[in-house]
Amino acid sequence: MSPSQGSSVPSEHETVGAYALGILDDAEATAFEAHLAGCEWCAQQLDELAGMEPMLAALADLPGSGSVPAIGESLSAKPSPRLVEKLVDEVGEQRARKRRRSFYMIAAAAALIIAGPLAAIAVSGGSDGGAQVTASPAQDTFRTMSDKASATDAATHVSATVGMAQKAWGTQAVLELKNVKGPLKCSLVLVAKNGQRVTMSSWSVPNWGYGLPDGTTPESRKPLYIGGAAAFQPDEIDHFEVVTFEGKKLVQVNA
Prior knowledge:
Helix content is 31%, strand content 28%. The chain is an alpha+beta fold and 255 residues long.
């Protein structure tokens, strides 16, 4: 059973707050208890209100109020209907916040699960305070791809190889990026033959860079591997671009 909507006439559902505050007379309390036996919604509301003793105790500080009894006892002065509604609304808001927090946690977990197969290199803290690069699912996928295209930009000297795999839903891609210095924020952009542009993935290049032959650390000498996906089939793709967030093209790879 759920509370009626759009009615201005008090109902048993609206009596739950008054019952919790103990302001019903014997006849009213008996009638509500009979209703409560078959109403799951009121039972849930009453359960929530039963944990609000601190808020009820705060009523004692209101002008003209006396001590506030525990739930189930009688009040010497009945709170106004507006106050009762405020208490019930507060319970509803608390429950909504709990639901939102649960939703965000579930969404974050789902995002991690989905991103896992297309993750870039795994980075963890090293003993010297730097970053330690390990193999990644994206790198493993790249090695199995037979359809690859490569290019090196004459001006930036950045090198890129894009591995492609046809899927029923479009194209899975993995980028191998070398000779790029940070700090930068970059994107892998697919340019279709019809002129449409789709960002397949984005990432940050740390200070030490990726795939630098003369890098001073093992991490800086290793390439970046990062996955992406798009709805276009391989034969619909013209080329790929690695661009910075400021719009500078670092390298273009023809499909």
